[in-house]
Amino acid sequence: MTIIDWGFVALYILISLGIGLYFKNYAGKNIEEYFIKGRNLSWWLIGFSAVAAYTDAGIAPAITMWVYTGGLLGNGVWWIPFIVWMPLSAVLWSKYWRRLKTLTSAELIEIRYSGKAAGIYRGIYAFLIGFVFTVLLMGYVSGWMTDALGPIIGWTPFNLIFYAALATVVYTTLAGQYGVVYGDLFQFLIFFIGNAIFIPILLTHVGGMSHVYSGIEALRGSSAKEFFNVLPPTNTLTGITIFAFVIQGMFFAASPTGGEGFTAQRFMAAKNEFHAQIGQLFNTMLTLIIRVVPFIFTGMIAAAIFAPHTIADPGKLWAMLIHKFSPVGLTGVIVAGIFAAYMSTISTEMNMGSAYLINDLYKRFIKKEASDKHYVFAARTASVLLFALSLLVAYYLIKGMESWFLFINSVVFAFILPLSWLRFFWWRLNIYGEASALIVGLPLGYIVWFPLGFSKLPFWEGFLLLFGLGWIVIVTVTLLTQPEKLETLKNFYSLCKPPGLWSPVTKEFSNIDKRKIRKETIDDIIDSVIAIIVCAMVILVVISLFGRNYTVFGYALLILIISGTSFIIRWKRKGIFTGLRNNVGE
User: Fold this and answer.
1) What's the confidence (pLDDT) of residue 201?
2) Which of 177, 240, 298, 368 is buried most deeply by CB count within 10 Å?
C-alpha cells in the first residue's frame, strides 16, 4: 500500500462521512425517518441498498474460495437457496411486509397475535435479534474483513476492525436509513468498479483465459472435468444436499438473514408495494449475478495458479491475488471497496438491530411517551452499543470462517423457517408456536452445529435435523394451546391478504372477494415458479460460458428468454410497472 493507495481510501471515507452529515437532519426528525426513510424508498434504491447489504467484506474472498475449492458450481451452497427465496420474496413477501406498514418485523407479532403473551414475546424477540443475532452477524462480517484485508495491508485484525468501525459508526448513527441506503449505493459501486477493473489486469498477468483453462487442467488433472461442471449434482452438491438447500430457500423468508431482516426493512420503507416488488427483483439480479462475476474470474485464476489443497486458508486467496498483482492506485480503490462492502453491511445491521431495540423494546416497554428527538438519540446510542459488542465477538469468538459461513447463512435459523409459511398461510398458528421456534431454535442451532459437531458433517444432516424438529415443535405447541382471537386474525388478514388456510377468518367475506383472493394466489404461485426459473437460467447462462459448455448455454438462454418474457408480460398485465409511477405511499 502506497501513499496514493491510502489517498483513495481516505477519499472514500471522507465521502462516506459526508453522506452521513448531509442526511443528518433528515434522519433526526423521528424514528420512522431514521429507520425506514419515511416510507419513501424507490425501487432502484431498494435494489442497490439490499445488494450492498448482502455484499459484505467477505463476499470477494468467499466466492473466490468457493470457486477454487468447488469449481463453477462451488457457490451452489448459497446460490441454490437464493434462487428460490429471492424470487419468492419479490412476488409474495415484499408486498405482505409493505401492506402491514410496520417499522420492524417484530411489530408483526402484536398484529398477528393477541394478548399479553404477544407483547412479552415481541420484547423477547427484539432482544434476541438485536442483542444476540445482530451482534453475532456483525462480528462474523468483521471477521471476514480481517481475512480480506489483512494480507493486503498487513494490519492486525484489531486495527482493521477499529478504524473501519470509527467511520461506520459516525455516518450510520448520524444519518440512519438515509445514510444506509445512499451510502450503500455509493459503496456498492466503489466495490464493484474496483474489482471489475482488476480482472483484465489480472488476466494480463496470467496470460489470458486460455492460460487459465490450461492451468486448471494441468493442476487438477482428472478432476478438472468436475471443476468445469455446470449441472448438478456434483461431489459436494449431492442430491440430498440440493434438496436441503431448496427447502431452505422455500422458507428463507422467515430468516433475519433473508426475507425477514434488513430485506423486509427495505420493503417497509418502499413508496408502495410495487416499488417493494420491483426493488427486490432488481436486487435479485444484482445479488445472484452482477456482484459475483468478478470473483468467478478470481476463483478460476487462483485454481490455475495454486494446486488443490496447497493453500492452508483458501479464504485468503483473493487477498493474495490483490497483494501480488494489483497496481498502485487500483489497490487503494479495491481496499476502499472492501471497506465499502464492510461498512454497507455493518451500517445496515446496526440500523436494523437498533430498530428492534428502540421500536420493539425501549419504546414499547421502557419509555412509552417521549419526544421524537429522544427516540432518535436512543437509536443512535443503541447502534453504537451493538457495534461495540460485535467487535468483541469478532475478536474473540469467530474462528473457522467456512463453518461460520454456513452457520450464519443457513443453519442458525433452520429451526424457525417454517414460520415464514405458517404465519401467513395458516390461521391456526398462535403466539406459543411462534415463540417456541426462536426460544428453542436459536440456542439449539448453535449446539447442533458446533458442540455436537454437525459443522464437520454434510450440510444437509444438521440443516434437515433442525428444520424437521422446528416443524414438530411449532405445530405441536400450537395445537396444544388456544387459537388466537378471531378479531385479531381478521385485522391481520385485512391488512395483509395472504393466501392459504384462512377459512375461519374469511367465511364472512363475499364470494367476489374470495374469488379475487383465490385468483391473486394462483397468479402469485405461477409468477413465483417462473421467476425461480428465470433466476436459475441466468446463473446457468453465465457459468456455462465460463465452463465453455455451449450446448447448455444455448438451452439455458432459450429458456431464459421464454420465461423472462412471460414474467414481464404477466407483471405488466397486473399493473405492477404502472404502479411504480405512483410515488405516493399506500
Assistant:
1) 96
2) 177
Provide the percentage of residues in the chain whose pLDDT is more than 90.
51
Report the residue count for the chain.
Answer: 586
Beta carbons within 10 angstroms of residue 22's beta carbon: 15
Instruction: Name every residue whose Cβ is closer than 8 Å to that of residue 494 and which is 6 or more positions away in sequence.
Output: none
Give the closest residue to 15 by CA, choosing from 445, 251, 343: 343
- Cell numbers at 223, concatenated: 478432476
DSSP 353: H
- Does the pTM surpass 0.90? The reply is no
- SS3 (DSSP) at 67: helix
Q: Residue 84 and residue 63: Cα distance in Å, rounded?
A: 19
Digit-coded pLDDT (tens) for 209-258: 999 999 999 999 988 999 999 999 988 889 999 999 999 999 988 787 67
Range of lowest pLDDT (20-29, 488-497, 531-540): 20-29
Residue in 332, 24, 373 with CA at minimum distance from that of residue 170 = 24
Task: Transcribe 228-287 into DSSP letters.
Answer: T--SS--SSS-HHHHHHHHHHHHHGGGSTTTTTTHHHHHHHTBSSHHHHHHHHHHHHHII
Contact 270, 43 (CB under 8 A): yes
* pLDDT (tens digit per residue) in 156-170: 666 777 777 777 777
State how far the alpha carbon of 583 is from the alpha carbons of 32, 275, 471, 500, in Å: 18, 9, 41, 31
**What is the C-alpha separation between 85 and 251, in angstroms, rounded?**
7
Query: From 1.20.1730.10, 1.20.910.10, 1.10.260.40, 3.30.1460.10, which CATH number describes the 3-579 domain?
Result: 1.20.1730.10
Distance set, CA 478 to CA 126, 423, 426, 428, 579 (Å)? 21, 12, 11, 7, 39
The C-alpha cell that represents 457 in the structure block: 458433517
Q: Is 501 helix (H, G, I), strand (E, B) or coil?
A: strand
Do 586 and 272 contact (CB within 8 A), yes or no? Answer: yes
3-class SS of residue 426: strand
**Whole-angstrom distance, CA of residue 356 vs CA of residue 345:** 17
3-state DSSP of 104-129:
CHHHHHHHHCCHHHHHHHHHHHHHHH
Identity of the residue numbered 378: A
- CA dihedral for 261, 263, 264, 269, sign (positive or negative): positive
User: Which whole number is the average pLDDT over 430-449?
Assistant: 90
**Which region, left, alpha or beta, applies to residue 498 given φ > 0 means left and ψ of -120 to 50 means alpha?**
beta
Q: What is the pLDDT of residues 102-111, one digit of tens each?
A: 888 899 999 9
Place of cell 446496526: 350
* CA-to-CA separations, 117 to 224, 296, 520, in angstroms, rounded: 57, 49, 33
> Contact, 145 vs 342, CB < 8 A?
yes
Question: Nine-digit cell at 302?
Answer: 487462483
